[in-house]
Design brief:
The structure holds two protein chains of two kinds.
Chain A: H1 3-18, H2 21-43, H3 63-80, H4 90-95, H5 98-102, H6 108-142, E1 147-148, E2 154-155, H7 157-170, H8 172-189, H9 192-209, H10 216-220, H11 223-227, H12 241-266
Helix pairs in contact in A: 1-6, 2-6, 3-6, 3-9, 6-7, 6-8, 6-12, 8-9, 8-12
Chain B: E1 7-16, E2 19-29, E3 34-38, H1 45-52, E4 60-65, E5 68-69, E6 81-84, H2 96-106, H3 114-124, H4 140-152, E7 158-162, H5 170-185, E8 189-194, H6 197-203, E9 206-211, E10 214-220, H7 221-227, E11 231-237, H8 240-248, E12 254-257, E13 263-267, H9 269-281, E14 286-293, H10 295-304
Parallel strand pairs in B: 3-8, 3-9, 6-7, 7-8
Antiparallel strand pairs in B: 1-2, 1-4, 4-5, 9-10, 11-13, 11-14, 12-13
Helix pairs in contact in B: 2-3, 3-4
Classes of the chains: A mainly alpha, B alpha/beta.
Chain lengths: ~270, ~325
């Protein structure tokens, strides 16, 4: 693999993404969504009380990004992180452009690495945009007031912001694990529908498993478990064990999925 | 620089299940020549091109492109190699120009002249006016032209063209042939896959004929032409029986009665002229004289087998001296 080849593929993939309506709409929703949510909360009298930090959304703007985080972990992250990862390889099958791409002076390793980097970059961008937008919406619409954490301790605005940033940072590893899952499904099935849809179904199935009285070892091996690890950051004293465990599990998913995807792509015969 | 051929493949094989798609194929294309890859549909031409370009992993054999050993599982196609296999495909949501810009970024050549090269390539293939239209709205012929433009971008020294005149109007096909000839004249090697004997005869100096994945002829077009049997013409007269009688006395002319009642005349051009004059002298009016197959086409059918003729019968090939041509491969 060459560094120049890698960056040229990244540049091409980013240009293709920028030209697609779906990616622009998705990123725009990451920016606008939290503002709409905060505005609705601000205007209505009812609170999302059954959600973690739901009771605090009118008292502190820092509760808004945590409520959004709780919701996104359940529903949005598998979608957000699979949209590009699940399509970036399968789209070449859909358009029949593998032969166009692979007859230029770039190796399969360059193409694979460039596409994965683009998918990972998009997932990171989507999560970070959602995080920044949620914090901004909370602060601007509700206010930068102190936040009461899960232990009942009042956190100053600076402390609250710090915890919110850490909480959002903690979901990056599982988000990237979902991206890698989408990538391997995109390569293996050659179908964008499967590449995007199956990680979402897998995410929901993993969430459902949390409600089932199954073996604990399986629960600990699910990517979605890592999405809840941030709870430990909002208690006194904070505990990090789920965070560490979730990061390791997510890292393992990431490496294994990408290794399988690359081995499949490397030896794949490009047909008509 | 290297003295090696632009393209050198030895013993290339590709098997799908129990079927040999390509079997122990040797192929050499030199700089400055258009090398034809000829064969009927399903002969393995496209699979061979895929193997040579690394789109399909070969089971056996070696491939050198521009003097470099090539293995797609290890590295990319070398700089200076370009082309397309089957119908060129592009991103439909981007314009033709934007597609070329992205492909040019993937090439290793100098980026400073990129825009100029794209303009030149679009001009060459007659797409300059439609360059900013989305490829989704292109016709098959326009996509074919865009594929050729994309292949021209890296200043190819080895160019693969898989049936490049498919979907093109006669003017477009003529332009593509002229382009292939010009590139070869400028020193590039062009591997042109086709099932159109006339196109190969017009453009190529050397060719490889494959059938059922195996090479059945490799050599120069001139040599093949020398081996070609007489051209075949369909003939109808006002008195076919008398025309047969005249043919029986005419040197170098063979006439057979076809199932539709017409006569099939096998003769070279000189003998055919003499036969026609003889028919006129005998008071026989010619109502139809139509070429059925060019002489090379006839040989092509011999090499690859007519659809209704079963196995190709290489034993029927004879050179003008009457000696049996034992092995057309590797002439």
């Amino acid at each position: 693999m060459s560094v120049r080849g890698f960056w040229s593929v990244v540049g091409v993939e980013c240009s293709k993404l920028a030209a697609q309506l779906k990616t622009r709409v998705l990123l725009a929703s990451c920016v606008a969504g939290p503002f709409i949510f905060a505005a609705v909360i601000h205007m209505q009298s009812a609170l999302p009380s059954d959600t973690l930090f739901g009771r605090a959304v009118k008292e502190s703007g820092f509760a808004i990004p945590l409520v959004v985080l709780g919701f996104a972990a359940l529903w949005a992250f598998p979608v957000l992180t699979s949209v590009v990862g699940g399509d970036v390889f399968a789209a070449e099958d859909r358009y029949g452009t593998w032969k166009t791409l692979l007859t230029r002076s770039r190796s399969r390793a360059d193409v694979f690495a460039g596409k994965v980097a683009t998918a990972v970059g998009f997932s990171l961008l989507a999560v970070i945009l959602l995080a920044v937008s949620s914090v901004s919406a909370g602060v601007m619409v509700i206010g930068a007031d102190p936040l009461i954490d899960l232990s009942g301790i009042l956190l100053s605005p600076a402390q609250a912001l710090n915890r919110v940033i850490l909480a959002w940072a903690s979901v990056l590893p599982p988000a990237l694990a979902f991206t890698a899952l989408a990538v391997v499904l995109s390569v293996a099935t050659r179908s964008s529908a499967a590449g995007i849809g199956l990680p979402v179904i897998a995410g929901l199935t993993m969430q459902l498993y949390a409600f089932v009285d199954g073996p604990e070892v399986i629960r600990r091996l699910l990517i979605t478990s890592a999405f809840g690890a941030w709870h430990g950051l909002l208690v006194e004293p904070p505990y990090y064990q789920p965070l560490v465990h979730g990061t390791i599990v997510s890292g393992a998913y990431f490496v294994v999925c990408l290794a399988i995807a690359y081995s499949k792509l490397r030896r794949r015969d490009i047909g008509g | 620089m290297t003295d090696r051929p632009a393209l050198e493949a030895h013993g290339v094989s590709k098997r799908y299940g129990t079927r040999d798609a390509v079997c122990e194929v040797d192929l050499i294309a030199q700089p400055g020549e258009v090398h034809g890859l000829l064969g009927p549909n399903g002969a393995g031409k496209t699979t061979l091109m895929r193997v040579l370009l690394g789109l399909v992993e070969r089971d056996a054999g070696s491939v050198h492109l521009l003097g470099c050993a090539f293995d797609s599982t290890v590295g990319p196609v070398p700089d200076g190699v370009a082309g397309f296999v089957e119908t060129p495909a592009f991103y439909p949501y981007l314009s033709g120009r934007r597609n070329l810009e992205l492909l040019a970024r993937l090439d290793s050549n100098d980026g400073s002249r990129r825009a100029a090269r794209i303009d030149e390539a679009l001009e060459h293939v007659g797409l300059a006016a439609q360059a900013d239209v989305g490829v989704g709205g292109y016709s098959a012929g326009m996509r074919q032209r865009l594929g050729i433009a994309a292949a021209l971008l890296p200043s190819p020294r080895l160019l693969f063209l898989d049936e490049p005149t498919n979907s093109l109007d006669p003017g477009g096909a003529r332009d593509v042939r002229a382009l292939a000839r010009r590139l070869a004249d400028e020193g590039a090697a062009v591997l042109l896959s086709s099932h159109d004997m006339a196109e190969v005869e017009e453009l190529c100096t050397t060719l490889t004929v494959i059938n059922r994945g195996r090479v059945v002829y490799a050599g120069s077009v001139d040599e093949l032409t020398r081996l070609a049997p007489s051209a075949v013409h369909a003939l109808r007269t006002n008195d076919d029986r008398a025309a047969l009688d005249v043919a029986s006395r005419q040197a170098g002319v063979k006439v057979a009665v076809e199932s539709d009642g017409s006569l099939e005349v096998s003769a070279d051009l000189e003998a055919l002229d003499a036969y026609v004059i003889s028919l006129g002298r005998a008071g026989i009016a010619i109502r139809l004289l139509e070429r059925r197959a060019r002489s090379l086409e006839s040989l092509f059918f011999e090499l690859t087998g007519r659809p209704d003729a079963g196995e190709p019968s290489l034993a029927t090939l004879h050179d003008p001296s009457g000696r049996a041509h034992a092995s057309p491969v590797g002439l």
